[in-house]
Design brief:
elongated, 18 strands, four-stranded antiparallel sheet, alpha+beta, disordered C terminus, 363 residues, 20% helix, seven-stranded mixed sheet
Length: 363
């Protein structure tokens, strides 16, 4: 009975006892300096690296939903034909990928003789041809004379199969209409200025003065990609137009602007199948028979690529648990305990407020 009483007494002491941590204050200058330095390092880590560098207080979304509509305008004339949009733009639907024919391999009714060279030297006052640098070999042998190419220009005369095919004009204009949407933040924007005064009829893209006029000259796109238009038109190639939307929703919407970059996408130094070309046929009826002319076309293919990311200030307490414990550990554990007193940890709401209630819920 005595053993049973002692067991019940020990159990009662365990159940009805109350424990509290005991804090011991050590007054030591070296230990105190070390302790404060560690606290300072942790504070600098969170303020500089987590918040400023990594922007850990922000939520982000990448890969916007995007639509691209393109339209090419311009008319050019070669020595034997006038070309318009319906003939040199493939496909005609105006999507994010299209090509502009710059040279065709088939030219009807060619004969051997002398004719004006395309894109070559210009005449000086005495009528002699002045050679200019040409990235590609001429299509014939130069005679040394300068002959009229059109009403305003003279070029070198050559002995070749005439007429000589030429590249399409680099003055064609391309409208690239882009709209993006980030569903997580319900944010949408476009790259065209909302104006009703006929702004798009007269403007040309300029990164400084006309950022929201997405009308580009073909020659400008090729030059920005670091390519020579004549060389690219000869063999063809693929140019990428990259539209980048990197936006911070903590700032006004006017600070969210598209950034354009241009580069060649196909390997131009490849020895096998370099450049860009394709074949198509034109059909007609002759003497009751169906006939076609097969044409090999060289051109510049334009790929419009849209990418981007938006960031928005999220809840401060949505930081990773390990990071939050380092910064808010004493508060989440009930503050600094004192001798002989109990304390209770405050309630912490780790949920994020819906967008629109406050841009910075954690402040």
């Amino acid at each position: 009975m005595k053993a049973r009483g002692r067991a019940m007494g020990a159990f009662g002491d365990y159940v009805w006892s109350y424990e509290t941590p005991k804090v011991m204050v050590v007054k030591n200058r070296n230990l105190g300096i070390t302790y404060r330095l560690v606290q300072l390092l942790i504070l600098v880590y969170f303020i500089w690296y987590v918040f400023i560098v990594q922007k850990g207080y922000q939520e982000s979304e990448s890969g916007p939903e995007s639509s691209v509509i393109t339209k090419v305008k311009g008319v050019t004339r070669s020595q034997h034909k006038v070309w318009d949009v319906e003939e040199y733009v493939k496909p005609p639907e105006g999507g994010s990928v299209f090509s502009i024919i710059t040279r065709v391999q088939v030219t009807p009714s060619q004969t051997q003789g002398t004719c004006a060279e395309v894109g070559s030297g210009r005449a000086r006052g005495g009528g002699a041809a002045r050679p200019e640098r040409r990235p590609l070999p001429p299509p014939g042998e130069k005679t040394g004379r300068c002959v009229p190419y059109n009403r305003t220009r003279k070029t070198c005369e050559i002995v070749a199969w005439c007429p000589v095919e030429e590249a399409m004009a680099p003055e064609f204009t391309i409208l690239i209409k882009n709209s993006i949407h980030f569903p997580r933040f319900r944010f949408s924007k476009g790259n065209i200025k909302d104006s009703r005064d006929g702004y798009l009829r007269t403007c040309i893209f300029n990164e400084t003065t006309d950022l929201y006029c997405p009308i580009f000259k073909l020659g400008f796109i090729v030059a920005q990609a670091g390519e020579n238009f004549s060389a690219l038109a000869e063999k063809g190639g693929v140019i990428g137009v990259i539209i980048n939307w990197n936006c911070n929703l903590d700032l006004p919407d006017s600070e969210c602007n598209p950034r354009y970059s241009f580069r060649r996408l196909d390997p131009k130094w490849a020895q096998v199948s370099s450049g860009y070309n394709y074949r198509f046929a034109k059909y007609y009826h002759c003497s009751g028979k169906s006939t076609r002319t097969l044409i090999k076309a060289y051109g510049i293919r334009v790929d419009v690529i849209v990418q981007g990311q938006v960031t928005d200030a999220g809840s401060f307490l949505s930081l990773p648990t390990s990071s939050r414990r380092l910064l808010l550990g004493p508060l989440e554990q009930g503050g600094n305990p004192q001798v002989g007193r109990g304390s209770h940890a405050p309630k912490v709401n780790s949920g994020r407020k819906p967008r629109g209630s406050s841009p910075h819920p954690w402040l």
